[in-house]
Every structure is written in C-alpha cells, then in structure tokens.
Design goal:
about 350 residues; mainly alpha; MetI-like fold
C-alpha cells in the first residue's frame, strides 16, 4: 500500500507543472549543460533551433503605425497656454477689451450727442457734475460724449495704421534680407528716408496733398515701416542659409513659399511685439500731428482733445485728465500684452 501511494504521488507531481526557482532560465539557451525544465526541448545552440522558435512575426496595423509619430503638440495652443500664465497681461487685455466695448456703450447711456452744445455761453468748461459726468468743453459740448467717441476713433485709427505698417515692413524685410541683389537698393532707400526727420515729410504731405485722416494715415504707413523692415531683415540673415532653406532652394521651391513657410514662423514673436508697441506709438504720433496742426480731424480724437486741453490746462484741468488717463491705460496695456504674447509665441518657451 505504501508503494502504491508513492507511485500515485510521483505520477501527480509529473503531471503538474513545476517551476524550479533555483534554475537560471537566462542561461538555458546558451549553456548546453544547464538544467532544463521538463516538457521543452532545447538544442545545444541557437543555430540549431527552428525558425518558429526563434522569431515571431508582429502584426501590422496602419492606425497603430501612425500613432507612433503622433504628437498632441499644437503651436497656437501652446502660445495660448503660455500667455495665460502671465496674469498681469491677461488682466490688462481684459481691461482694454472692456474699454473698447464701452466706447460703443457710452454713446447710448450718455445724455447728449457729441455735436450738441446746450448753452455755449454759460456752460463752457463746467467741471464734472451729475448732469455732465466729464464736464464740458470750450463751446459747451458734453465732454463725456467727446472723450468716448475720440477713444473709439483713435483706437481704430491706431490699429489700422499699425497693421499697415507692420504688414508692409514684414514683406519688405523678408525680401530685403533674403534676396541679396536687392540689399543695396533697400539699404539706400532706408538711409534716404531715415536720415531726414519724418515730420518734414508729413508737413510736405499735409501742405501739398491734404490734412485729412485718410491721407495722413496712409502717410504714416508709408514712413512707419522702416524700423520693422530693418529688424526683420537682420533676422532673415540668421535663417537664410540654414540647411532646410538650402535644401528647399535645391528642390526648386518658390521664393514666396520659402519666405512665408520656412522663415516667417520664426519671426512671429518679434512681429507681435512690434505691433503691440506700434499701436500706442501711433496714438502718440497722431497727437503730435494734431497739436502741430498737420492733421485736420473734424470729429474728436484723443490727439485732438489733448491738443485742445493743453491751452486751457490751468483753467480746466479735467479736460486733460480723462484723455490722458485713457492714453496711459492703452499704452500700458499694449506694452504688457505685447511682451507677454511675444514670449508666448517663442517656441523655445513651449514645453
């Protein structure tokens, strides 16, 4: 009976899979004298092993293969995420948007129209009160309506002129920096315009062509592209002879495609910064032209109001406070937002 029990136990142990932890299975395939688990046949060397035991073919799926090179990175999403990290720039941008929207709302909630003068003789330069929230100007017009209409007009003028200057400057700067045979022409053109004060050109245009807002706006675009073009030209020199541009030229890629697909993306941060600084600069320049009498604006603008307020500042200081405060907010806003957005557009700051 005892022998029968031992034989049964031996059969059960042989049938059950046994894992011996003392065996080093990593050496089984290479060491012919190594102890091998039962149930598997091992030849003396790998060269004698069957192909099915050596290799196993992997299945191919096109979708899985595409996922290997897939990335969730998006340039503009990264730009927006980095911009939102600058809390001060976000707050100032919200303030500017609310300010611009309010220029349209202010005319609806105001009591008087910009052209209406209730009593020119008795209501000139009245201080702010319950009836006239910002006081009145020299002919008795409501200064509230004047200031907010001027803010809207100046912002629209500054944005349009700045976009025109930056666009023209970027196009000329790209061509100037990439096409070497045009470098001499644009350099001499830059020196010709830059060495003469711009105010002289603006004075000649105002006297010979006219002082309208459209004429002077086009003139500001015509002479305001110089700094942007010079900056872009210097940057293009850095990227012009890099390997991918040399390869594009060898493949016969069009000049316009090389400029706007290979080089232009590297200039976005610089362009955004110059645009942000050009908008308050245009408002300041418009103020100067209006003060000098070179810009005839029939409807109020911030430059027009500031020019008129300087003459009566000791008598009616409030006429300078409100437009000056709005110009200051616009300048600080675009400075902070422009720097923050410029840093966010730099791919080196993306994670």
């Amino acid at each position: 009976m005892k022998n029968q029990k031992n034989s049964r136990k031996t059969v059960q142990e042989m049938e059950a899979p046994v894992v011996d932890l003392s065996i080093d299975y990593s050496q089984v395939d290479t060491d012919p004298h190594a102890v091998r688990p039962m149930g598997r046949e091992y030849p003396k060397s790998r060269s004698q092993m069957p192909e099915k035991q050596l290799f196993e073919f992997a299945e191919y799926h096109a979708q899985d293969a595409e996922r290997i090179g897939y990335s969730n990175y998006s340039y503009w999403k990264s730009v927006w995420a980095n911009f939102l990290k600058k809390k001060s720039a976000v707050v100032m941008s919200v303030i500017f948007i609310c300010l611009f929207i309010f220029t349209f709302v202010a005319s609806a909630i105001g009591k008087y129209d910009i052209h209406m003068a209730p009593d020119p003789l008795n209501r000139a330069y009245i201080s702010p009160n319950a009836e006239f929230w910002f006081g009145t100007n020299g002919i008795g017009q409501d200064y509230w309506a004047q200031v907010w209409y001027a803010t809207r007009a100046s912002i629209l003028l500054a944005v349009l002129v700045s976009i025109g200057q930056i666009t023209l400057g970027v196009i000329i700067g790209l061509i100037w920096g990439y096409v070497r045979r045009l470098d001499f022409f644009f350099t001499e053109l830059y020196n010709l315009i830059d060495n003469i004060p711009t105010i002289i050109y603006m004075t000649l245009i105002a006297l010979m062509v006219g002082k309208s807002m459209v004429t002077m706006g086009i003139a500001m675009i015509g002479f305001g592209w110089l700094a942007t073009a010079r900056n872009v030209r210097n940057l293009v020199f850095m990227y012009r002879d890099r390997e991918y541009n040399l390869a594009s030229r060898c493949l016969g890629t069009k000049l316009s495609r090389i400029l706007f697909r290979n080089i232009f993306p590297y200039l976005i941060s610089v362009i955004i910064l110059r645009l942000a600084l050009a908008i308050p600069g245009t408002i300041a320049y418009e103020t100067t032209l209006t003060y000098l009498g070179l810009m005839d604006i029939m409807l109020p603008s911030l430059g027009n109001l500031l020019a008129a307020a300087r003459a009566v500042f000791p008598r009616a200081a409030f006429t300078l406070w409100f437009p000056a405060a709005i110009v200051s907010v616009i300048t600080i806003t675009f400075y902070l937002v422009g720097n923050a957005f410029s840093d966010a557009c730099d791919p080196r700051n993306h994670v």
